[in-house]
């Protein structure tokens, strides 16, 4: 008997095909914005559907490993992952495939071909639509931060141009952090230089709003969810990446400040009406939904989720709640709404955790995060007379960011865990 016809060798080759196919699905789920538990479950469904009796997976930030067993035969394989992006249409298409494969009847080759078709054929929004959506989302973010109407158009134009450049650099394979600094500098510079002749009195806030398309909202939420669901190593790695992105956003804004004349913002009470916050929360959430490659129907639901989140947060703050408490209540309300609409008897559209995250994105304090890091940089040049005041403001901004993101993540995860609905329905 030759080695190629040895039944033990054949069984191991079959297990290897199962393992590599499951890993291929896991890589795509990771690269399109899937949290660790979702990636692990998707790999298990693929492997068991193809004939594995036991499946054990290890989910890392830059690599995935899987061990599959059938009878007395066991094999372990590992593969690397690429950049962690967000593409919800492809992510959900792969989830659907995982569910179908779990039912059995398909071969590893058929599944790999299906994965290749999904990767190549899943539709994307046109590049111009994506750029405009980013601009509109940042302009809406600006209004939520208190930017005056004179700066609305400059922020929209600057963010649209920056997103166009961002996509171009991504296609060239530019390092993520270098790209972040370049795009942040471009967006902030354009917003500031355009807002000055437009007559805006909120130049610095406009510059901050223009770079919010770079704030890693989904990775930040996934990081916290991973830790809460028992994957602290991957969650910690995600947090480090989020922190690095914020640092390079700050580098870009700092460079832009050298190009834009220093004109301090005028102090006035920002618009805090529930209607105002809900409208611009809806616009921002829908804009980010385009960046996440939501389908058109899901974009409507993303807008509704954003409106609900900002309305609840505004009402809470009007009642005297802290920003963190109001953000927790808003995130929990959005998550609850998504879960209720996803119940079999009430399902009006296929919901998902990503929809709840998109609705909560406008609540992430990107401006405070940038203020915190810029404050730390400023401390290196402060004279002792004002250093204490700067340190206090910097620490306050940093704590506000940490606690607000924590409150949003907790609100989403607590409600999600109470319903215990599978990510694959």
UniProtKB/TrEMBL annotation:
The keyword Glycoprotein does not apply. GO terms for cellular component: plasma membrane. The keyword Ion transport does not apply. GO terms for molecular function: transmembrane transporter activity. Residues 22-256 form the Threonine/serine exporter-like N-terminal domain. The chain crosses the membrane at residues 128-145, 151-169, 176-196, 202-218, 239-262, 274-292, 299-319, 325-343, 355-377, 397-419. It is a multi-pass membrane protein. Signal peptide: none annotated. One of its GO terms (biological process) is succinate transport. Keywords: Cell membrane, Membrane, Transmembrane, Transmembrane helix. Residues 277-417 form the Threonine/Serine exporter ThrE domain. Its main location: membrane. Belongs to the ThrE exporter (TC 2.A.79) family. This is Uncharacterized membrane protein YjjP (DUF1212 family).
